[in-house]
Design brief:
By secondary structure, the chain is mainly β. The protein has three helices and 36 strands. The protein is elongated and about 105 Å long.
Length: 709
């Protein structure tokens, strides 16, 4: 015991080592509902969060769908983040205290060894319940589509996030050798989303004397931007990469007409001295095309916009390869959209048919020679246009420049949410495509001339449950990513250019409920929760391009016989101790002195038990008659948990008396931290008695009294 100044209190003054001993509290025998267990005659002991089966009339009947729940319950607490990898995810996962795992327990009764590890490699996660609290985040990654099959209830609370978005490409320094030649890491997609196409490399001019003028020896370089990946790992609807321009490059530093190959020059004002002109290449590479999915991907643009429309020296070589077409979604076989889903196949996003697929990616920007000059127009030499090319016009040090390109964004992921009881969506589900990379935002440097990459398409979201409730706070985001931008294109000397990567297409959304739903879903309500959203009157049907909603579609015929979709089950809350079994009681003081009493404490709360703070990780609560951990992911307990001694039951009374602290709990309940729940401090000659939470400050009294010891 120490005082408020951290000075030790002596034994003579009531200090020293003081120990609070938990009191053994005996409970009566717990009797299950009948000799055979749960009778299913009523739902008094049903755990609705983990039950999808039909419960009642003396039996448990199979429900429509949901899965086995073999991997237990996941509850992502406020402020926490959980990552699930669809390629290989081991359960119990790090940070998840998993208990409810079917067929994976070992050991003898009374000394269970909680479950052997289970590794999921196909992205199918069979859970008994799934809750994400406000500010909690579930991140899904991997090359397989993610399927969250929940035996009971899915509950995405307001402010929660499910992230399966594709990565955006960064700004690119065009003076670097390039991403392809250096094997840079491509932007990664969400689950089954495509990798972004890498930007073009700078030219490999090995064997020429242009190295002295600024060219690179860059073996293995690819001057064309790479195409992004297509929908679901195919090549379908992939955003094409931007083309190199010009196609061929000079073989030496001479700028005579016979050596230009494809490089052409225009006479423009010299940025170094306004009274002079200079001979500069105004040629651009291609921008990356956007990834397609529900729609065609957007075109990447790299067209000059007057007054210069072509090269002057030599004339007619062109200033760009033209626009880069976006990804073509024709091979997906999407039928004409309609509100009745007539003829729909691919739009149903059925995993078993191979149609639950992540989005396509944007293409990378191409290589180009914009800004290369020759000394015919150098300071002190103000030539007419005809002299930009000639025998003595050579490329000197710093005159040559070619540029590597930015990469395309990565595709949004694919996710199916399947609940056996109910899907409550009130948070943010992000399956958007990544943005294409752009050039450096700082203009005027040698590295600020990258051609931009294309944006990626959004992914795929499929939501199925007997009851689907998509709240006004929810947002299902399948937006395509914006194409990258080239800020330098608005500030160039001479002709301004338009350089932007193509925009990615929206992905696809499919929502289904059963005819048993008391409040069936409808297109208009769901439409307002899906991004992109067009609020203008008369445009209500534009969302049909990427959204399909069908009330009553979920039934035995559409679920089929495929496992694990058709598996189902329920959970009964059998263990329900009576009374206030997690209660901290303060008995009356005994003994005439502080030394005999050990220590004393007065506690006063205001507002009753409901005003006690509730820690988001450890405090227990009762739900539907069951004990469960409030959060920390896994909650289905088959036996009494080991709660920290410092936790109070927020549903039981905190009695105010002048007492000696005694802990009451289930038989064998111990402090897993090995510490006392209470401690005393001395301030001047007064004892301040505090409830002290040994674990993460689980409980703090609202006010403490002081009394002399």
């Amino acid at each position: 015991v120490k005082d408020i100044a951290n000075n030790s209190v002596t034994s003579a003054s009531g200090g020293g080592v003081l120990v609070a001993i938990p009191e053994v509290q005996t409970f009566g025998q717990i009797v299950l509902p009948d000799a055979d267990g749960e009778g299913f005659t009523n739902t008094d002991l049903e755990n609705p969060d983990q039950t999808g089966a039909e419960w009642g009339s003396g039996r448990l009947s199979v429900g429509l769908t949901g899965g086995s729940g073999r991997l237990g319950s996941i509850r992502v607490a406020a402020g926490e983040s959980l990552v699930l990898d669809t390629n290989s995810q081991t359960f119990p996962a790090t940070g998840i205290a998993q208990i409810d795992v079917l067929g994976n327990n070992s050991g003898t009764p009374g000394a269970p060894v909680y479950p052997n590890s289970v590794t999921v490699t196909d992205g199918v996660f069979e859970l008994s319940s799934l809750v994400i609290e406000p500010t909690g985040t579930l991140i899904l990654r991997g090359s397989n589509p993610a399927r969250l099959l929940v035996r009971g209830r899915i509950d995405f609370q307001p402010g929660s996030v499910v992230d399966l978005s594709g990565e955006s490409a960064p700004e690119h320094d065009s003076s670097t050798p390039g991403d392809q030649v250096t094997s840079a890491t491509a932007p990664a997609g969400g689950p089954n989303g495509a990798l972004g196409g890498l930007g073009a490399d700078r030219a490999d001019l090995t064997g020429t004397n242009l190295n002295g003028a600024g060219a690179l020896f860059n073996p293995g370089a690819n001057r064309d931007g790479a195409s992004g990946g297509g929908v679901g790992g195919t090549a379908i609807a992939a955003g094409p990469g931007g083309d190199r321009f010009p196609v061929t490059l000079p073989l030496s530093s001479s700028a005579n007409a016979g050596n230009t190959q494809g490089v052409g020059y225009n006479v423009v004002p010299d940025p170094r001295l306004a009274t002079f002109i200079t001979c500069v290449s105004q040629q651009l590479g291609g921008s990356g095309g956007g990834g397609g999915y529900a729609l065609l991907g957007g075109d990447g643009t790299s067209q000059p916009v007057g007054p210069l429309l072509d090269t002057e020296n030599p004339a007619g070589l062109g200033l760009s390869p033209g626009n880069t077409a976006g990804g073509n979604n024709g091979a997906l076989g999407l039928v004409t959209p309609n509100q009745n889903s007539a003829g729909y196949d691919t739009r149903l996003l059925r995993w078993q048919e191979g149609d639950l697929r992540g989005g396509s990616a944007g293409g990378g920007g191409g290589n180009h020679t914009y800004g290369t000059t020759n000394n015919a127009g150098g300071a002190g030499n103000n030539p007419p246009a005809a002299t930009c090319l000639g025998f003595f016009n050579i490329l000197e040090a710093g005159d040559w420049i070619d540029h590597s390109g930015a990469s395309g964004g990565a595709g949004g992921g694919a996710l199916e949410l399947l609940a056996g009881r109910e899907a409550l969506l009130a948070g943010f589900v992000d399956a958007s495509g990544g943005f294409g990379g752009g050039s450096l935002s700082t203009t005027g440097t040698a590295g600020s001339f990258a051609m931009p990459g294309g944006g990626a398409s959004g992914g795929a979201l499929r939501v199925r449950s007997p009851i689907v409730n998509i709240a006004a706070t929810s947002q299902l985001n399948i937006n395509g990513g914006l194409g990258g931008f080239a800020p330098w294109s608005l500030t160039t000397v001479g002709a301004p250019v338009q350089a932007r990567g193509g925009m990615g297409s929206p992905g696809l959304v499919r929502v289904e409920d059963s005819s048993a739903s008391g409040a069936p879903i409808n297109y208009e309500d769901v439409r307002q929760r899906v991004q992109p959203f067009d609020p203008l009157p008369g445009n209500e049907l534009t969302a049909l391009d990427f959204l399909s909603v069908q009330a009553g579609y979920l039934d035995a015929s559409t679920v089929g016989t495929m496992r694990p979709d058709t598996l189902n089950g329920g959970t009964s809350c059998w263990i329900r101790p009576e009374g206030n079994f997690l209660q901290l009681v303060f008995e009356a003081d005994s003994g005439a002195s502080v030394a005999e009493q050990g220590w004393t404490m007065d506690v006063v709360t205001s507002g009753g038990p409901a005003s006690l703070p509730r820690h988001e990780h450890r405090l227990p609560e009762r739900v539907g008659g069951c004990l469960r951990q409030r959060s920390g992911h896994l909650a289905d307990r088959r036996a009494f948990p080991r709660w920290p001694l410092s936790v109070l039951d927020a549903y039981g009374p905190l009695q105010r008396r002048r007492e000696r602290s005694v802990r009451r709990g289930p038989p064998g309940l111990s402090d897993p931290l090995g510490g006392s729940p209470c401690r005393a401090r001395r301030r001047d000659d007064a004892w301040r008695r505090e409830l002290h939470a040994e674990h993460d400050s689980l409980l703090r009294p609202l006010r403490q009294d002081e009394r002399r010891g």
